[in-house]
Amino acid sequence: MGTKRLMGAPLIQLQDIHLTFGGAPLLQGAELVVGEGDRLCLVGRNGSGKSTLLKIAAGLVEADRGTRSAAPSATVRYLPQEPDLSGFATTLAFVEAGLAPGDDPYRAQYLLSCLGLTGEEGTDRLSGGEARRAALARVLAPSPDILLLDEPTNHLDLPAIEWLESELNSLRSAMVLISHDRRFLERLSRATVWLDRGLTRRLEQGFSAFEAWRDTVLEQEELEQHKLDRRIVMEEHWVRYGVTARRKRNVGRMARLSDLRTQRREARRVTGSVKLAASEGETSGAVVIEAKGISKSFGELAVVRDVSMRIMRGDRVGIVGPNGAGKTTLINLLTGRLAPDAGTVKLGANLQMHMLDQRRDALEPTVSVKDFLTGGHSETISVNGTVRHYASYMKDFLFTPDQARTPVRVLSGGERGRLVLAKALAQPSNLLVLDEPTNDLDLETLDLLQEMLADYAGTVIVVSHDRDFLDRVATSVLMAEGDGRFIEYAGGYSDMVAQRGAGVTAKAREAAVAKPAKAAAARPAPSSERRKLTFKEKHALETLPARIDALHGEIRTLRAKLAEDGFYARDAKGFAATAAKLSAAEAELAAGEERWLELEMLREEIEG
């Protein structure tokens, strides 16, 4: 469906692609054609097979049936959702390994500089955002004929996203893009491929036209389904009440009725929608948070400087800025998790706060979906004052009954995002604090999250790099202006840009882009006045993650031991000693995670 176009020989062509995972058909006749200069966005729900289809196009996965053909001379570069940098000592070595003979050797360093990396970062200590930046530099460095990019904006801040948009627009490469960032897709795509129920449809227009076209297609399907249902009713009526049928049923007409019933039964209907509703707590006071002159420094580095603001009941405040600007520190100050060095924070009455962490820290890899939702002690979950069976609540978030016992580690990124949302929205609250809630969510789930936040009676504070999401949700935007200063602007992200005259920019980004040759040849020496990490701080940053992991394992072991049947009756003293060890481990874990967060923020500020 959609319009057709004339084109030369395709660079990549997938025909009649079939693939089955775990007994369920994922792709059933999918097609994909990528020609010279194409700018395609590949859209569809989480779990529809977009990433798998892109891997088949890249030649990394083989279909059960169908053909893949590619132009012999075409260079293809594929960006996975979770890049693997193992085997390379530094980010520069990783990027340079992607260059082919004849490629510009300086382009690797230039791209790393543009993306805020030096090239000397050790690959074993990279954050998710840093790994994604290095992987982007690697696929862009050769200027390939075809770029296959799976969620390229995930874990990037706004300056990096806007730089990436500009860089991709300047390339002659053909592109296939998977992304949940609407603004990114609208600015880059010229055609849309919709993967739905195993099949693909192509629209020769960019993403901005997709949603209206998709709705028209689905409405037409519903109309055809209604016509089919009416024909079945008519045939059944004839079979039951036709005069001839009382003596001898017409074999041909009975066969037609059977065919119609089979057609309806086997029709793959659109998967149900996610049902999002936040459990609302008591009404909070009119003033939710009042901050007066709050400041916070780590050593000599001022992260938040003299910020005053008042958040009222029903406000939706978006917080934006480049990575390392102090957004997380500001949230911790406003919510009382961190004490300011100066100034005061007053929290309103009857406050029931729930926080959603972008790192999905609450997800333990070995815990099942059911146990995560219920706490492992029940078959039910309380949602907005109503007790519901876990299977019914799972269905609201598009999880099947078979996934109840599935461990978290095997879920996709989108499924993990939906699972964390499911848990968070079941908790009674009148203040939601959301740190990058849009990561890994598909576009339809994003729509429903936006609608839920619009209907939510409480107050919302959200950190996000998704410009479209902020435009749809925020009533004001708090912008990190640099040097620890934050200024509040009325409206969404676009309103902030109109008032401010510019969007979020990274420090020294303009200089890095304007002088690529110098950036590639030599890195500027750090200023002697710049705050540096002490040996003790560096050591803590390097060793704390391993200790935190070890504590997680110790806590799981201790909890399992305490849960043993008859342990207390058998050994009361042993039970008490184990419980004391658990409390000590949990306290050490909390302190370790808080210390790591402070040091990581400090490192980001220094390196920023």
| Global outline | globular
Whole-number tally of structural domains? 3
Q: What is the helix content? A: 40-55%
State the total count of DSSP E strands.
20
How do the strands of the widest beta sheet line up side by side? Answer: 5-6-7-3-8-9
CATH superfamily of the largest domain: P-loop containing nucleotide triphosphate hydrolases
What's the helix count?
21
The level 1 CATH classification of the largest domain is Alpha Beta
Oligomer: single chain
Any overview of this molecule?
- The protein is built from 21 helices and 20 strands.
- Strands 5-6-7-3-8-9 form a six-stranded mixed β-sheet, sandwiched between helices.
- Helix 7 (210-241) runs antiparallel to helix 9 (251-266).
- The model is unreliable at 1-7, 243-249 and 507-530 (pLDDT under 50).
- It folds into three domains: 12-212, P-loop containing nucleotide triphosphate hydrolases (Rossmann fold, 3-Layer(aba) Sandwich); 287-352 and 429-521, Rossmann fold, CATH 3.40.50; 535-607, Helix Hairpins (Orthogonal Bundle).
Fold topology:
Blueprint: E1 12-21, E2 24-34, E3 39-43, H1 50-58, E4 65-70, E5 76-79, H2 91-96, H3 106-114, H4 128-140, E6 146-150, H5 158-170, E7 174-178, H6 182-188, E8 191-196, E9 199-203, H7 210-241, H8 243-247, H9 251-266, E10 287-298, E11 301-312, E12 316-320, H10 327-334, E13 342-347, E14 353-356, H11 369-374, E15 380-383, E16 386-389, H12 390-396, H13 413-425, E17 431-435, H14 443-455, E18 459-463, H15 467-473, E19 476-482, E20 485-490, H16 493-500, H17 509-514, H18 516-521, H19 535-562, H20 567-570, H21 572-607
Parallel strand pairs: 3-7, 3-8, 5-6, 6-7, 12-18, 12-19, 14-17, 17-18
Antiparallel strand pairs: 1-2, 1-4, 8-9, 10-11, 10-13, 15-16, 19-20
Helix pairs in contact: 7-9, 19-21
